[in-house]
Amino acid sequence: MIRRPPRSTLSSSSAASDVYKRQVYCTREFRTYVEVLEDFKTARPSLAHLLDCIPVLQPRSFSIASCQNITPHRIELCIALVNFKTKLGRTRRGTCSQWVSQLQPTDQVKLWVRRNQPMRLPTEHASCPIIMVGPGTGVAPLRAMALDRSLLPECPVTMLFFGCRHSSQDWLYGPEMSELQKRGVLVNVAPAFSRDQGDKVYVQHRIIEHGEEVSAVLLDPSSHVFVAGSAGEMPKAVRGAFVKAMVEWGSMVADEAEAHLKSMEKQRPVSYTHLPLPTKRIG
Question: What is the rounded distance in angstroms from the CA atom of residue 230 to the CA atom of residue 38?
Fold first, then answer.
């Protein structure tokens, strides 16, 4: 049986230790308001005061994974079902993802569509070469973009780097992306499965492995880059892989490659869209 720490654990003669324990209590277990009130029996605010302190639940945005030109009357979403256990064994579930998972085909949902301008390829650049990097559900808008490019009379250079933990469990749209590669819509599909081998492999490693092709696209003055996914270390690691690819295959030194990438980011779309992804899951 897991026991909650008593209130005395938050008291200490050391101010630094006291601050640390409060921080641990507040952040490690993702405690709910009910759990906090159960831990502190003397804390009994009025209902009105409690409701005034609890923030309003914010809307949740999901990237559209379907192509409007292919399915004009249907919207497809790619949603990660948030469901994990904390270090003390408490189950935590995502409020919105759990609600969506329980919807039935006939249920009606109120929603709105919001433009995501950074993830849009200008019409006049529809045939430009692009690099797409999307770990996990970050692949959603990239899938929509790949499907849209499949309608072009000629297939432009389109590279996709996807990352997940296990190929057998998490390779979102894997068969579809392989089919798009066979058709020539995607010239390169490079999945990174971080847990399928002893050494962890991420999207930045796949970018370096395909450094020659990546460098050629990055050095093309008409190219575009789209990165979607976690707001953690991934975007920085991907950017570093771009620089390394240009150093190794683009006849540049590190400073030149960095300057080229900065110039790209200022002059044409190099989009880093951060999507909130679950960091802990059961299993």
Answer: 34
Beta strands in the chain (DSSP E): 83-85, 91-93, 130-133, 158-164, 188-193, 224-229, 270-274
Report the distance separating Cα 283 and Cα 278, nearest Å: 13
- Helices 234-249 and 254-267, packing angle to 10 deg: 120
Report in angstroms the alpha-carbon separations of 56 from 3, 59, 188. 30, 9, 44
DSSP 3-state of 24: helix
- Evaluate if residue 168 carries a pLDDT over 80: yes
- Given this model, what pLDDT does residue 18 score? 81
DSSP, res 5: P
Q: Which three-class secondary structure state does DSSP give residue 111?
A: coil
Q: Which two tokens stand for residue 280?
A: 């802990």
**Do residues 20 and 27 lie in contact, with contact meaning Cβ atoms separated by under 8 Å?**
no
N- to C-terminal Cα separation, the chain:
21
Is the pLDDT at 115 greater than 50, yes or no?
A: yes
Least confident of 40-54, 107-121, 165-179: 107-121
